[in-house]
Amino acid sequence: MTDSVKFFLPEEKMPKAWYNLAADLPVPLPPPLHPATGQPLGPDDLAPIFPQAVIAQEMSTERWIDIPAPVQDVYRLWRPAPLIRARRLERALGTPARIYFKYEGVSPAGSHKPNTAVPQAFYNQQEGVKRLSTETGAGQWGSSLAFAGSLFGLEVEVFMVKISYNQKPYRRALMETYGARCIASPSTLTASGRAILERDPTSNGSLGIAISEAVEVAATRDDTKYALGSVLNHVCLHQTVIGEEAMLQMEMAGDSPDVIVACTGGGSNFAGLAFPYIRENLKGAKTRIVAVEPASCPTLTKGKYAYDFGDTGHLTPLVKMHTLGSTFMPPGSHSGGLRYHGMAPMVSHVKELGLCEATSYAQTECFQAAVTFARAEGIIPAPESSHAVKGAIVEALRCKAEGKAEAILFNLSGHGHFDMQAYTDYFAGNLMDQPYDERELEAALSTLPQVG
To answer: How far apart are CA 132 and CA 157, in angstroms?
Structure first.
């Protein structure tokens, strides 16, 4: 085993195709349903909001889908992303475990999100689309689509969850630097936003609400399509460059992971790292796969596996997923990218099949883990990524207690340079663990659509 700390793949080893787990699932993914008819969705049903190439990928069961050359050209700005051995963290924890992290914070927008923003912008530009509308929680996705839109000459309109809009002004500034328009959601610009504000004028917003606004804009304007940064199959597909690179880099390190850890909100960065390893597990490998989510929005650990809307305004198709109910309003937290009521259908399906585990942690213990990591490794994690850091540290301390020298690989999906107010609040003792309202969760789950 090498003594190296960083493992860089040459550009020519960058993946040339995305991996589609749908090709290898032992049980097919339940189809999305049309909310009016209850029948499986067809390509024509998605045409008002997505370009044809994206629709084809969303419904594909091909194992490998080629990455277009123009997308590869943009990827080369930061990919292949490094794999790093966290040797200093290992020493700080006194663990015999070997800890590695795939670092996606090296992208121009600072997270894993450009892996799907770039192809989505490309496919829309190829079909003559002029404008894209989208939602964003913490701003990682909005920043990434703004970046991608600037490369392909697209106007981008971003509905940002209001609590994050107010907490993270520099994310807004980054989007505007790339040329996007950033709007606090719920807003008065859409019927769905106005309806929410009428019921609750002080609403902090949620990803479900922001999705409703963005979808409404796309569905009502001929020149606009919708793009999203997580949840759906094509997004998970685009992120698999993470896991495919990691496999080659772990070989360079002369190692292979015993445990994979990634945070989960909508499921995209988890899918990106885990899906290629799940493929190998289906062939007989024995890697444990652990999804980590916030205790305040515990979709995988407390949600119901059922058909539900992906948005609060019920403008989206019905998808079968782990859900807390489309009307559920997670408490405010600094991990805005993880405050989503649902989970990617494919990630949910994987969990149901027993192909991964799930756990949850409160935000203060995640920030404590992030500070431990930063003081050992020098990188300040995004609040969302702090959940993966916490999960990896828990596994490393388990190895210490059991005297096991396992290899742990986690996805550090973004840096925290625009999230320093969260760290300021943490150090001042103002960062609180806000539990979700059990009665509100019960009420939201009681309104799930009845699907035969």
So the answer is: 6
